[in-house]
Design goal:
Belongs to the D-isomer specific 2-hydroxyacid dehydrogenase family. The chain is α/β, with parallel strands linked by helices. Helices cover about 30% and strands about 15% of the residues. The two termini are about 20 Å apart. The relative contact order is 0.14.
């Protein structure tokens, strides 16, 4: 089977589509850049994309690869009806996201986020004696112990933190002392300094962290979300931050992206905002190319694709 692979312009939200095209010069496929909307006459077998467009359905595609882990806007049932296989890029972000989470935790523990705010005014503001703490001896609950969560747990454990986690199955996880089921979420988050959310977005996890879970957290606790925006009830989070029922939050994902300028989150000193960048690394294109190259080979050989979603 001869593979003609298209690279959609939406890939440019992460890195230049032409860069990926050059990295796939040795793939078992002809690789071309596409327009925003696809035309069936172009005869692409596969497509690499960041986002979804309805024109994908009638373009004669056999396979779509998403250059990120999330795929919630893709109509899975409709793709099945059109016999289009969907694969994603889960599993390649663990180290980058885990290191970003360590960065968030260190900012809050050492007060680094506040010092940065004082630089434009040349303010010299040492912390009060009880403003900062060390991560060594502190506690963190990682909600979701997949690739991301396990990487976060390993690094937190290495920093001397007490690590607990929430996952659906009771299987032991390295570097995690205590495990909770999803039905035990309130207990899991009730007595830790940090809650890190790292679950995929599904019907079960949407607004998983809402007013009830936020209320269960300590008033000196911090929430970190590197999952998907809708996993956290953003309105309830704003209320919790305004009322100081939690100490702060580091947020890489949001209900609406980019985060609107009028969002009150922008004005909160105890909130760290990053633009869905926790997974960003200069090696990202290489990792995507390796996945796409292997799946192109498998598609040509009639084999099951890696990271298959449907």
């Amino acid at each position: 089977m001869t593979i003609r692979l298209g690279i959609h312009p939406s890939v440019g939200r992460i890195f230049p589509p032409s860069l990926l095209q050059s990295m796939l010069s040795d793939a078992e496929a002809t690789v071309d850049l596409t327009n925003e909307r696809l035309d069936a006459s172009e005869s692409f077998n596969g497509l690499v994309t960041f986002g979804y467009d309805p024109s994908f359905l009638d373009a004669g595609l056999d396979w779509i690869h998403v250059v990120r882990a999330g795929y919630d806007e893709f109509p899975l049932d409709t793709l099945r009806d059109h016999e289009i296989t969907l694969s994603n890029s889960t599993g390649i972000h663990g180290d980058a996201v885990s290191e970003a989470v360590v960065g968030y935790l260190l900012q809050f523990a050492r007060g680094l986020h506040r010092y940065r705010l004082h630089e434009p005014d040349h303010e010299w503001n040492p912390p009060a004696w009880d403003d900062t703490f060390t991560l060594d001896g502190e506690s963190v609950c990682v909600v979701g112990l997949g690739t991301l969560g396990r990487g976060i747990a390993r690094r937190a454990d290495a920093l001397g933190m007490s690590v607990s986690g929430v996952r659906r199955t009771p299987t032991p996880v390295d570097h995690v002392e205590t495990r909770y089921g999803p039905q035990e979420l309130l207990d899991a988050v009730s007595d830790v300094r940090f809650v890190v959310v790292a679950v995929p977005l599904t019907d079960r996890t949407e607004e998983m962290v809402g007013a009830e879970a936020l209320s269960a957290m300590r008033d000196d606790a911090y929430l970190v979300n590197v999952a998907r925006g809708p996993v956290v009830d953003q309105s309830a989070l704003v209320d919790a931050l305004r009322s100081a029922s939690i100490a702060g939050a580091a947020l890489d994902v949001f209900e609406e992206e980019p985060l609107p300028p009028e969002s009150p989150l922008w004005e909160m000193e105890h909130v760290v905002i990053t633009p869905h960048a926790a997974a960003a690394t200069e090696d990202y294109p290489n990792r995507i190319a390796a996945l796409v190259r292997e799946n192109s080979r498998r598609l040509a050989a009639g084999e099951s694709l890696a990271n298959r979603v449907v």
